[in-house]
Amino acid sequence: MSELRHDNLQSLGWRPFFQAQLSDDLPETIRPARVCAAHRSRIELLGDGVPDAVDRSSDVAVTVGDWILVDTEGPRLHRVLDRLGAFKRRAAGVESVRQLIAANVDTLFVVTSANRDFNIARLERYLAIAFEAGAFPVIVITKTDLVESVAEFRQQAAALSPGVIVECLDARDEHQVQVLRNWCERGQTVALLGSSGVGKSTLINTLTSGHQETRAVREDDQRGRHTTTSRSMHPLPDGGWLIDTPGMRELQLVDMAEALDEVFVEVAELAEQCRFSDCAHETEPGCAIQAAIAAGTLDADRLKRYRKLLSEDRRNTETVAERRSRDRSLGKFYKSVLAGKQREKGNEN
Predict the structure, then answer these.
(1) Number of independent structural domains in the chain
(2) Rounded distance, CA 173 to CA 140, Å?
(3) Which of 6-20, 79-93, 265-279 reaches the highest mean pLDDT?
(4) Pair (107, 230) in one structural domain
(5) Structural domain of residue 324, as residue ranges?
(6) Residue 12 CA to chain centroid, in angstroms?
């Protein structure tokens, strides 16, 4: 399958990682393709000698950015190649099901804006999602024309995680957007993540020199109405690819405990210094985290946000059976506490 190291495939993001998954005995009719859009019943493709689209089986997990093998004789989807990484969330419903958002992304532009949409807790959530997916996060603060200075926004964003890059710009200004071009070069894949109204579509238009529709920002809350309804890939003038995702105000975390430790690295490092390995970081003696809060070197609100995201991740990651078992254990505990109080009350009488 050496012929598959085609220059066109490399321009789509083909890597040795994917090449290594191909066996020499694959039929000539089997060819690699990249998913540029995923719909309910079909997937649209990019590649050499492959159809524009193939039918999608409901039992196959595939998303935009995936690399797949296509049997051109069908044509049909042969199999999905292992991913370098993927963005996912907990799907709606009772079952603990993971929903794919995008795959094989090199860089994630975490988009926010210099207005009321700027939200530290949301940015921490998005950074965890980027780290878990193996993508390099770049925080992009848009609508800089709305404020006299972006220094405070930049400072707050840069303090969220060591080494995180923050770029402040007017998404309509081609010259200012040039600072993002280094991540948009040939064969590179970037994605955007951010809530509605932060200027994602405007940024995409500037990056792609395209004409993606945007709607006016509502005057009462400065929020726009995002017109993107499905995830898709857009070619970039610099040779890379951009994956757009519909505006999602709240992404539920799942399987991200390690990623959260990367975002809140100072909290995780302090926790290792506590006297007790099972320290709850509340009133235990020798708690390094509480000592840091008392000394003013750790923000108490930062710890609260870390705990909240950890709790959410734990709740979304556990299976239904695990959740029921936990609920039963808690139920027994509460009953035992109540029974003990009732006995004490009876003894008093």
Answers:
(1) 3
(2) 14
(3) 265-279
(4) yes
(5) 257-337
(6) 21
CA–CA dist 237, 36 (Å, integer): 17
In a domain, 346, yes or no: no
| Residue 56 neighbours by CB under 8 Å, 6+ apart | 38, 39, 40, 41, 42, 43, 62, 77
pLDDT tens by residue, 245-292: 664 445 678 888 999 999 999 999 999 999 998 898 888 899 999 999
In this structure, are 154 and 223 located in the same domain?
yes
Query: How many C-beta neighbours within 10 Å does residue 22 have?
Result: 15
Residue 95 forms beta bridges with which residues?
A: none
pTM of the model: 0.80
Q: Which of 82, 106, 140 is the last residue of a domain?
A: 82
- Claim to verify: residue 230 and residue 156 sit in the same structural domain: yes
| 3 state DSSP class of 36 | strand
Q: Give the CA-trace dihedral at 64, 70, 73, 75, to 10 degrees.
A: -20
Q: Has residue 335 got a pLDDT over 70?
A: no
| SS3 assignment, position 18 | helix
**Dihedral, CA of residue 68, residue 71, residue 77 and residue 80, to nearest 10:** -30
**pLDDT tens profile 202-255:** 999 999 886 444 333 333 444 444 444 467 888 999 999 998 766 444 567 888
Residue 152 in contact with residue 125, Cβ under 8 Å? Answer: no
Helices 288-295, 300-317: inter-axial angle, 10-degree rounding: 150
Is residue 50 pLDDT above 70, yes or no? yes
Task: Report how far residue 289's alpha carbon sits from residue 292's, in angstroms, rounded to the nearest whole number.
Answer: 5
Last residue of a domain, one of 215, 244, 273: 244
Cα→Cα distances 295→139, 237, 290, 298, Å = 30, 50, 9, 8
Chain segment 120-146, per-residue pLDDT in tens = 999 999 999 999 999 999 999 999 999
Handedness of CA 168, 169, 171, 174 (dihedral sign): negative
Give the domain CATH number at 105: 3.40.50.300
